[in-house]
């Protein structure tokens, strides 16, 4: 594959955890990966680490909560590459420390500003570049905790996992995914939400947590779906996830 024919992917929040692993796996599959990182130095550290393993990637500084940084990043990607084929909206936070009735509203706002508005902000900013791709793909990294069916099912393994503002934000992200998919269908851009499943990362060290290599699988798979692949869906590594 020549450098110009490579797919170009931006992964937000690729400085750590599932996003970093998603970036690695996409690069291993021959995609030109832009490592989205809110810290330039941390992102460069990831790019250097990948380079030691023979993977050529590049850092794009981007804080999904900061309008200016997002639009500067989009301008930078336009100058460097002129288009974007894949956007993985992975950056996310979980700030819950108790019940929603007592949650500091600032924490809830920051959760939504990152997980929901941040995703929309980045999507809007990069849309002109995605429209220049012949097969644009957007993956919104959601969570099993987003499922309204699981939230209301006492038998669900998620029923007692109480991160209410986080879960609410990911449910909103899922709804947004459905609408974005409908709006972007005519432009040939497929938009799906994925659940990595419980994955061992810096803040998640629970029994049964999966390695990042597994947690990143759905993001990678739906970033690379064919033109006859689904859009507007919610998937985990086994297939469709209940809404
Ligand atoms: N781990 C799980 O069990 C699990 C399960 C379901 C869904 N998820 C979802 O998977 C995604 C990745 O989570 P993770 O577990 O890998 O978390 P993580 O290890 O905490 O990594 C989160 C990444 O997002 C970045 N980030 C946070 N706020 C940002 C902002 N405002 N702008 C840009 N980047 C920002 C972080 O950057 P810094 O390095 O600068 O902090 C980091 O790179 C999230 O959307 C999360 O909700 C995780």
In short:
42% of the residues lie in helices and 14% in strands. It has helices spanning 17-28, 40-52, 67-81, 105-130, 148-151, 164-184, 212-215, 217-223; strands at 8-11, 32-37, 58-61, 86-89, 137-141, 190-194, 234-236, 239-240.
Account of the 3D structure:
The protein has an 8-stranded mixed β-sheet, sandwiched between helices. Helix 1 links the parallel strand 1 and strand 2. Helix 3 runs parallel beside helix 4 (105-130) and helix 4 runs parallel beside helix 6 (164-184). The protein contains 8 helices and 8 strands; from the N terminus they run βαβαβαβαβααβααββ. It has helices spanning 17-28, 40-52, 67-81, 105-130, 148-151, 164-184, 212-215, 217-223; strands at residues 8-11, 32-37, 58-61, 86-89, 137-141, 190-194, 234-236, 239-240. The relative contact order is 0.15. The radius of gyration is 17 Å and the shape is globular. The protein has a single domain, classed as NAD(P)-binding Rossmann-like Domain (Rossmann fold), CATH 3.40.50. Bound molecules: NADP nicotinamide-adenine-dinucleotide phosphate (NAP). NADP nicotinamide-adenine-dinucleotide phosphate is lined by residues 12-13, 15-19, 38-39, 42, 63-65, 90-93, 114, 118, 141, 143, 196, 198-199, 201-204.
């Amino acid at each position: 594959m020549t450098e110009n024919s490579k797919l170009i992917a931006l992964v937000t929040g690729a400085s750590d955890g599932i996003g970093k692993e998603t970036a690695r796996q996409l690069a291993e599959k021959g995609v030109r990966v832009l490592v989205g990182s809110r810290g330039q130095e941390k992102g460069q550290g990831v790019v250097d680490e990948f380079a030691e393993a023979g993977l050529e990637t590049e850092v794009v500084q981007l804080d999904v909560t900061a309008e200016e940084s997002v639009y500067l990043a989009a301008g930078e990607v336009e100058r460097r590459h002129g288009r974007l084929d894949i956007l993985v909206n992975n950056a996310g936070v979980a700030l819950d420390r108790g019940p929603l009735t007592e949650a500091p509203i600032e924490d809830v706002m920051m959760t939504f500003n990152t997980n929901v508005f941040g995703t929309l902000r980045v999507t809007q900013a990069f849309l002109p570049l995605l429209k220049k791709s012949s097969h644009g793909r957007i993956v919104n990294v959601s969570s099993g905790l987003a499922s309204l069916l699981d939230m209301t099912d006492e038998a669900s393994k998620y029923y007692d996992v109480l991160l209410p503002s986080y879960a609410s934000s990911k449910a909103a992200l899922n709804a947004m995914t459905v609408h974005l998919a409908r709006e972007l269908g005519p432009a040939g851009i497929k938009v799906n939400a994925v659940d990595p499943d419980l994955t061992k990362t810096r803040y998640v060290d629970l029994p049964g947590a999966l390695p990042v290599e597994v947690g990143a699988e759905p993001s990678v798979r739906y970033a690379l779906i064919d033109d006859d692949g689904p859009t507007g869906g919610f998937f985990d590594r086994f297939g469709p996830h209940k809404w």
